[in-house]
Structure formats: C-alpha cells, structure tokens
Amino acid sequence: MKKILIAGASGFIGSALIEKLLESPDVQIVGLSRSQRNSHHSRLTWKKCDLFSLKDIAEAMVGCEEAYYLVHSMLPSASLSQGTFYDFDLIMADNFVRAARAEKIHHIVYLGGLIPADGELSWHLRSRLEVETVIRDSGIKSTVFRAGLIIGPGGSSFAILKKLVERLPIMIAPSWTNSKSQPVALKDVIKVLVATSQKESVQGKVYDLSGPETLTYNELIRRTSAKIKKNNKIISLNLIPISLSRWWVTLITGLPKNLIYPLVLSLRHEMLASDNHRWPHPEDLNTTLNEALDIALNNHEPKREFSGFVPVEKDVRSVQRLVLPAHRDAAWVAQEYFDWLPTFFSTLIRVQVEGDICTFYLVDPAIKILILKKSQERSTSDRQLLYVIGGLLSGKQDRGRLEFREILQKRYVMAALHEFRPALPWYIYKWTQAIFHIIVMRSFGEHLKWFVISEKR
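Above: the chain sequence. Below: its structure as tokens.
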C-alpha cells in the first residue's frame, strides 16, 4: 500500500485531494494539520504538525513514499509574527525538503502559482516561485504545478470574488480588472494532482494549469454576478491605484488584510499558462467556466478559517532574511552573531559564550537576561539551532528556539526565533523587547552586508 503525506491537507485543495485519493484502495494518507483532528476514514491518519519545526515534519513523514506540498502562508502563525509571509514560506518549504531527504521521500508534488512572463513579480507570486525553487533544488524528483484562479467551494480567492459580487450593487472596476486570466476548475486540478502520483511518465516536470477560457477579471465578475442573479453595475475607472483597491476589497469582504493585500497586488499580472509548460493531457482540463461556477456556487461551501492559527499561549515568531557572504555558512553566521553582539550592545548588555551555552547578561554576569543552548545533535554547518533555556526575559519555554539556516543556494541566511514566550507582560514586551529584537537583527544584517561589500572591492 502506497503511503502519501499531504502538507496543507486541511485546506481548500488538500481536503478535496484527500477525498479523491482515498477512492483508490491501495493508498494510505497522512494529513498534516496545525491542530489535532479526528479521522473519518481508516486509511487517513491526521498528524498534528508545525511546519516551522523540522523535527515535527520528519516524525510525521516516517514510512511515507510520496508527499504533496500545498502550503502557502499569508496568515499569522503566532501571537506576534515579525517578518514577511514570503520568509515564513521559505522556512516551511526548506524544512519540508530537509525532512523529505532525511526520510527518503522519492517524489514531491507542489502546487504553486502561474508565473507571468512580463514585469516585476508581486511578492505573492515571487514567494510561490521561491518555494518552487527550494523544492526543485532539493535533489528529490519533484513535479511542480502552477495555477492561477482555482474555482471551487471554499477557496480563498473565489471567496473574495463571491463576496464582492454579493455585497456591491455598484462596483468601481480599477485597471487590474482588465488583466486576463484562465480560471481552472477545482475538480480538474485535483484530477491532475492525482494523475501525477499514478503516472511516472509525467513526473519531474513543471506544468501550467489553466481552464479552456481566457477572460478578464471584469468579465469574470460579470459571469459570476449573472450566476447568482445579481444585477451588479460595473463602472470602469482606471485611475484607482491598486493600493486603494486592496483596501476597499478588504473592507467589503471582511477578510484579513494579510490575505487580501498579497492577492490583490498580484492581479495586475496577466495569469496565462505558458505553451512551454502545458499539461500533456488537455482532456483533463476541459471543465467550462460555467460548470466550474455552478459547482462552486451550488455546492455547500466548507467553513474555512481565514484568521490564521491562534496559539493557546502568547508566543513570538520573528524571521529575518539576511545576506550570506560568499564562502561562509550558517555556522560562521551564528558565531559571527555572538562575536558581534558585545560590540553592538557596548557596555550595557554583554554576551558570554562557554561551550554550548550563550548567556546574555546586564552589566553583571549574575544578572542573566537570556540563556541559549546550542543543539549539537541537530545543528549542521548549514543550520544552527539554539534552544532558549532561561534568563529573566524568558518565560516558560516548551520549544522556544533561535536558528540560522542557509537558503536559496546559499544566497541568504534566515535568522528565526520560533515559539518564544516572553517573561514580560505581553503589552510591555510588544513595545520594548520585541522592537529591540528587530533593531538588533536588522543591524546584524547590515553588518553582514559589510562583508559582501568588502569582498567586492
């Protein structure tokens, strides 16, 4: 029996994929979720897993042969998230491929976004491409699918479209509504995702997925409006900047700006499939737009959480992307960080490193404000891991940790603080220690840039 792991299993695509895969009697599925879930099928096992934890993913992957990666993070993953969704995406994808290599996964399937050929990419699309790069560079056979708007019940992009049509009798259509797209039906995407697991001949390539019709977003809004019998009046006004568009879309739909902003900024691109990456079986993608809209609008829409993960206790995730000087590694960056800190803090805060223990203290070594311990067994030259084990500024820690990891072919190093629980009252922490941490990491980033500039002279 083939054992398949699905990251993003509880999402829009993942839940539909599970139902389809379970139609085959020789498939067993492991679904990853941030929270504990009960299985409704004997061949489906849910595992609680934090994708920011390499250890969690590796433990969940044990015994699996193939893995689907259907994750895209635009919503908060902690009580306080410092950093960008695209840096969060990078860490999760890097964890995934590191675990997949360790557990001998032989095939990864990734669903990302269509990549326009013209213009500078929005960060939403750039993030999809970066994750794709991490997966394709993993050394594991990888099949990549790129899709634009996927139409089906429960999808966040289609939910935005539907809410706009339902709530706006008069709609001012800005310039981005003239961008062309090729929406694809959810059931067709699922058909293709399942097919790539069953046919080795199509594996290891990049495919663009698109439906049979090309139309503008303006036309798509009109078609959706007609389907739900709303006589919306649409007025084209190309003077509205996209920054204002994302604000009113957030206001009208009531969905989080973390979700809306990146999506709307991507709408200025024409989302069209490339002839060089066509799926070789066009009959799999022949569901008409009318049929896709009927299915999406008439089926019971699953309830989706669009607020992000809400932790039980107040915790912090802080991620910064730093340039990695040539011929250096994560081990060097970690050491340089601790060597640099005393200079940055001057005489107020000092740092003492003894063996695996790094102690931050205030003037006197007896006043320890933060204590870190390096994990020798889980640290490598390309990833350094230190656990928070004490200090006056540290609350009770379960898995609080600081890491430095190389990413994107050694172009960058990610400095990331995960699941840190502060000792200070939450409001005081947010306006003092949290801000100071960002200042320190950005200053260290400038310090690393100095090495890059020096080497180019």
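The first strand starts at residue 2 and ends at 7.
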